[in-house]
Write a structure and sequence with these properties.
OB fold (Dihydrolipoamide Acetyltransferase, E2P), 67 residues, mainly beta, 1 helix, single chain, 4-stranded antiparallel β-sheet, 10% helix
Length: 67
Amino acid sequence: MKVSARNQLSGRITKIVKGATTSHVSIDIGGKVITASITNEAVDDLGLRVGEAATAIIKASDVMVGV
């Protein structure tokens, strides 16, 4: 699969926490962990499992953090 996003970080899934409609999928990228919020349906469709390889693909116009 080809995608236009340039920010692609490969790693291994360390945790999947399913909520009512959304799951949080954590991917270890060389000792750092990135967590993505995706639908439960996407987790099932992709067949995501802890320990498997996955790529975090980041395509965003901005990132906001507040304190």
